[in-house]
Amino acid sequence: MTNRITTINPATEEPIETYDMMTDAQAEQAIQACYAAFLDWRLKPLEERAKVIGAIGKELVNRKDAYAALMTREVGKLIGDSRQEVDLCAAICDFTAETGPKALADEERDIPGGKGVVSYAPQGVIYGIQPWNFPCYQAVRYAIANLMAGNGVLLKHAENCTGSGLFLKEVFEAAGLPKDLFTVLLIDHDQSDKVIANRLVRGVTLTGSDRAGRAVGATAAKHLKKTVLELGSNDAYIVLDDADLDVAVEACVQGRIYNNGQTCVNAKRFVITEKNYDAFVERYAEKMSAITMGDPTDTATKLGPLARDDLRDKLASQVDESVAKGARAIVGGSIPDRKGAYYPATVLVDVAPGQPAYDDELFGPVASIIRAKDDDDALRIANDSRYGLGGGIFSKDEARARELAAKHFDTGMISINGYSIAIPNMPFGGTKDSGHGREHGGFGMKEFVNVKSIYLA
User: Domain Aldehyde dehydrogenase, which positions (predicted)?
Assistant: First the structure.
């Protein structure tokens, strides 16, 4: 009997669609077809590739409402967030189409006795393993950059957003991308390892947990395949002595509940100096307690369900363990009695090392508030993590905050006096257990190219 995938609406618990998974032979054929399409695509002029990338952005906008509705059905995203996600993906296409030809153009350099040329050649088929929290964006983020570079692209999407992956393939081909150049693989984890080992696959990129990153990274290393890994985080937002509390509280609420709290760069740990601690906690708890759960298709809803029941249950378990080890839930903290994978906006205080709320990533609308003695202690606590993806600093002294961000905050992305997620012209990625490699900002287009040195005598 053929293995199948059934997607489930996490708000209603009702089935959406069922899909047949690929056999090993079908997966192999799909990889070969992608490679065959790559052999032609790699020879296209940069400007021609850019034209197709720009057309994909326009097609995304044309299908925004349909795509947004599908994502909300599959993973419970607020409908407004789903629409914004499609807009972001269109902006990524626009940025890539505009900057790609120049970024990937040959560079000439003077060398003794002649001229040197640095050429950025596409490598082949790049395999992406992507999660469910941004069904369009996670796929677009690596796919568009690699298509611009001239590579072929494979996608193994999370099973619960299978429809979103297939929808994206339709969008790409409707915009003029050659058939099979972007291929969605409906496969399991064992088959995924075989894809990584396939001789036609030249690189692997994964967005997911640090546990998944270790597993995929080890398999890729065994076959000498380069990886880009964008993994988890427990981003710290620090409120210094001179912070504007109105600005800090507002941004920290937004940063925690954005995308139902299921974003790798959500604000997760809030490190507050002694001077501001009591006032911040009171005001923050008041705002979080006012956030009610509801139907994600309703534009008035502020917090939808988590993407799956098991994800909700894991989050609840992490909260319960943190409370058992000394934390206190002053807002939320328990699974509601209602249909759907819902979990309330939650605020934990007395958070300390040894608790999941301090040490691990809580992927949902749960805020961990940590008391610091002073500014130096706040930065120490922020860096006291195995992760290093994003973070934030609140201070009225912008110059000092910028220096702390550049020289002392051990993380890949830092927001000052606000909350930011992803912007097409800025690099995206982290350090430590949050992975390696960069996407966006032009960096992603060069992660999987062969940088050639050509010597002209």
Answer: 3-454
34 carries an active-site annotation = no
Cα(370)–Cα(350) distance, integer angstroms: 7
- DSSP 8-state symbol, 449: E
Query: Could you give the CA distance from residue 102 to residue 96 in angstroms, rounded to a whole number?
Result: 10
SS3 of 422-435: the string is CCCCCCECCEECCE
- Reduced to 3 states (helix: H, G, I; strand: E, B; else coil), residue 269 is strand
Pairing of strands 269-273, 366-372: parallel
Q: In whole angstroms, what is the distance from residue 362 CA to residue 269 CA?
A: 9
Among 264, 361, 439, 447, which one carries the catalytic annotation?
Answer: 264
Place of tokens 């065959």: 36
Give the torsion sign (CA, 327, 232, 432, 254): negative
What beta strand segments (E) does 189-327 contain? 201-207, 226-230, 236-239, 269-273
**In this predicted structure, what is the pLDDT of residue 1?**
38
Q: Note the Cα 419 to chain centre separation in Å.
A: 15
Could you give the CA distance from residue 8 to residue 298 in angstroms, rounded to a whole number?
19
CB 391 within 8 A of CB 245: no
pLDDT class of 2 with cuts at 50, 70, 90? low
| 230 catalytic per annotation | yes
Write the pLDDT tens digit of every residue in 242-290: 999 999 999 999 999 999 999 999 999 999 999 999 999 999 999 999 9
pLDDT grade for 142, boundaries at 50, 70 and 90: very high
Q: Does the predicted model carry a pTM greater than 0.85? A: yes
Q: CA triplet 146, 437, 387: central angle to 5 degrees? A: 140
pLDDT in tens, 18-72: 999 999 999 999 999 999 999 999 999 999 999 999 999 999 999 999 999 999 9
CA distance between the termini of the chain: 63
**Are the C-beta atoms of 158 and 133 separated by less than 8 Å?**
no
- CB neighbours (10 Å) of residue 242? 15
Q: How large is the average pLDDT for residues 107-111?
A: 96
As a whole number of angstroms, the distance between CA 100 and CA 443 comes to: 10
Catalytic hit among 59, 74, 230, 439: 230
**How many CB atoms within 10 Å of residue 13?**
12
3-class DSSP assignment, residue 76: coil
Q: What value does the mean pLDDT take over residues 82-93?
A: 98
